[in-house]
What does this fold into?
Amino acid sequence: MKRSPVVAGSFYPSSTFRLKDSIEECFLSPLGPGYLPDKTDKPLEKNLAVIVPHAGYIYSGPVAAHAYVQVAKSGKPDLVVLVGPNHTGFGSQIGVWDRGEWLTPLGALEVCEDAAQIFLENCDEALVEYEAHMNEHSLEVQLPFLQYLFTEFKILPISVFPVFINVCQKIAAGLDAIAARYSSTLFVFSTDLNHYESQEITKQKDETAIQKIVDKDPVGLYTAVAKQKITMCGLSSIAALLFMKSFDKPKLLKHATSGDVTGDRAQVVGYASFICEQV
It folds into this structure.
């Protein structure tokens, strides 16, 4: 099983050389951390989690770069578990890619079959599902950032439909089981925040969601999203992180919108990055 990239050439460059330049531009952007991360072979000694956006690099890449700079400082993981929304509508509600390789312009990454099995055994709503991932971008766009920082790590991609909050708890149980088994794991959760409203409205709605995230309040997040009609696409993925017992409260690293990039503030999308330390 090999998954070829589907948004290379659109969300990020398909040329290896240009892709590396694009990633560095994200780090050096005025909206980014402003410096390039130091690459290291130092092992990640305890599990770590980040929340990152997943739009085209020109829009959300600098915000994501704030999280990846911190990842680089923490060390190289053996395993990266990626959890993000299913935008396509295909496949099962929790789809696990359990074997083979994912390809990007920067090379191939092996899927960890053992971690996939642990998750499937501990999350009874999850299924082995390839169709859910075939045309989905939310996880794919994270991989070149990770490959830029590190060499030779395994991955486990998990795609999540919008689900009831009790299902998020089951996802969290499966992820906690992986965290208990693998001590050098980076968990990457992906969401964009409010979509296609004005800068003012989007910032207000984003700040509400951000507060619930930093409070580690998944029920409050679900409630706020419903009451205020916050159109964050990775709600269920983020709620799963907030239910995990393995991690402390998330810390906000950066919040911005597409309007901060384009200057068009009539209809924007919100982006934020966070980091979570192991409990």
